[in-house]
Fold each of these.
Amino acid sequence: MKLKTFIAMGLLSMFSLGSCNAQQKDNTSKKELHYTMNESAPKNYYLLTMSSNGCNFRILVNDIPVYGFWDEGTYSGSYPINHFIQKSGTQKLKVELYPAYTHEDLGINSEEPLYIEIKKRLDGQTLDDYVAVLTNPIPKVQKGIPYYEYECSFEAEVPYEITELDELVDLSQEPNIEQQVVAKYNELKDMYEKKRFSAFQKQFDTRNKRIWVTNYIPINKGEKDDNEDIERMKKFYKHVAPIQNYEMRFFGDKKLVMLFSKEDCTYAFRLYDGGSKMWAIPFFLGMRKGSDKLEIVF
């Protein structure tokens, strides 16, 4: 077995996802990602496919939100989930079902409001080669209820092991955590609007390298994609929406925190072009053991 240990540093990657400063100690951790890679293990890709009818929904893998739909009508699509899988073994899946937007009075308006599958394929194979790992596990739902929650698990095999969450503290025990989170969001907002794009980009180092590693993306391609994203932001998106009218939620065994907009339930950190276009950026804040500084870690 060829097992290698890496310390990786990356730049900004949005991965087509589509969320007073805390006093700092001198020993705050560098933005690095520690992981191991078993070169002889299969490089599997995992995909979540979804089809909704009569509901809005949020899907979480290992207590981290993967995808949510908050709109009228139905939804059908798919989303890669490798970057929510930290190591081989049993993975937790959670589904939250809500009434469809503007039809809240009807409740969840179907007995089978959401069909999901988790599929996998090997690196080098095509989209046609995906095979089902988990198929439609959600039981029938009582029509008209205001909320439904379902949990189960599935097995995954990946060649990497990432220990990032093990290095973080329980944020629910941190004093004044909401003020610290809002301060960090405003720090990022200020950085972007003052056109400190290089500094803004570096805030995402750890998060983005994890995305590259878990999706087998070469560093040079990841950096190229990140730089293209930054250039697109600089060209089209001048402002960041005020950090207000939000809901704060903990994830990852309360080691991660994110702000969601109450207006549309999606990410509270959002770029605007001054017109109708908006780019909502998902990221999770965490605090490393031995530090009192929030940073983008996931």
Note: The mean pLDDT is 88.
Amino acid sequence: MTKVAFSPFADEWGQDYRALLCSSERITLTAVVRGFIRDAREDRVKPILGTSTAAHLGWFVADELRFSGGLWVVRGEDGAIYDGRSGYRLQRLQDLWEKPLEGREKLWSFRELAPNARGAFFFDVFTRERAQERTRCGAVAEHMVAGLGGGRLVRWGECEPLANVWNRDDVTWSLRMQMPVSQRHLARGENGEPVSIQVSRTRTGLLEHTRGLVPTGEYGKPEGLPEGAPLAMHPAITETLQGLVKGFRPNLAMVSYSEVVDLDGSLGQIASRRRMDVPLAVLIGAPAVRDLQIDVAALSAHHDVTPLGLRRAPSLLVRFSGRDELWHQLVGFAHDLDQERLAAALAVEFDDAASGRETKG
């Protein structure tokens, strides 16, 4: 690929990246932005969004960039360019992946946390469905948003603005038309909760992937948490994941605590210092428990583990409620599971979904 002269705030193509300038201060996943990220991903190059330092990056955009290995660059008032996630100054775009950035000058807004930051529960759920005419998608999204303290879903679409009134039949039809692997469909709750849904064919039916955010009030003070209780013990998390086992067929579900910035009802990020996401709970569905050959008693000796569902074929709810830092607990839990078996068990179904193989449901 021929390299074009570097200009960080105009559209540009390089050997290993594409850059798009967004002049708006409110960046949403419009058809243009989504098409830009999708084309870069398909060409196996890095998508880079360039904005001003005042821009608000909507959650759908940030999540799409994350899925695609994308990057965010902002232009400071001094005319210099900075990494929108770390705040470090760049000499050129390639610094983002060719050179270590630590020790460089930082953008002024990264000296302190965003004053209007809110806390949110982030969820990432894989569920199995039967490939049948009566199957309807979107119920998991409704369950997770409502259970974690959000409202009902009200709009959906494949890009923003979301133009369609939420309806499971319509969403399912759109997803079905894109089989064997759909694009991620977007939805929003009545309180601004963003959710994405993707469906893929597997050897045994359908795999529905649901991700989203539910705001929980001021950061560090989630609504509904009993005083003195660990964040992982929030009743909404436990009850929602229990309900997932009762009403659906989960493979894997994760809930984390995230920092978001609310701009007139739109959740996302700004170019400022941001707290790291922290893991709170993992639900391992019964098929994964079986395939991983998990010794429930041994795992329970070191972690907060609760069997759910059928006694002979339980799902496992693991809450990171101990005294160690939450990431240390997650690393220890993953180690105890046997990472090779975990990768092998999950890769079989996920690789089938990614390859788009036609299978019998």
Note: Residues 339-355 form the longest helix (17 residues).
Amino acid sequence: MGPDFSLALNEDLAEELDAEASSIAVVDGRIAAACLVYRDSTPPVVTAETVAHTTPDGELLVEGCVRRSLEVLADRGTDVAEFDGHVSDPHFLPVWTRLSPDGRWFHLVEVPADGPG
């Protein structure tokens, strides 16, 4: 993400994020993975990832975060959620696949900031 984009992305985060349903995995005092649940849409939008592609046990950490977040949502009676993730994410994709999701999905194409080759 570009340096100026993070401010815009996080501008309304406190109002949009469902802090109770979101989950964070901490390893050795540092955040290693997260599952963030956004309450600004119905159904809620869920994102999950590690802080780095090389995070040890990243898939297990993401799975634990996703399981906890989905349990909180289920306890509230929410039975549908939308996931926002990357098929190139080595930790999220296997977890998402095991959920056997159904419904519509789409694939975003990344265009380099400096334009075509």
Note: The longest strand covers residues 30-38.
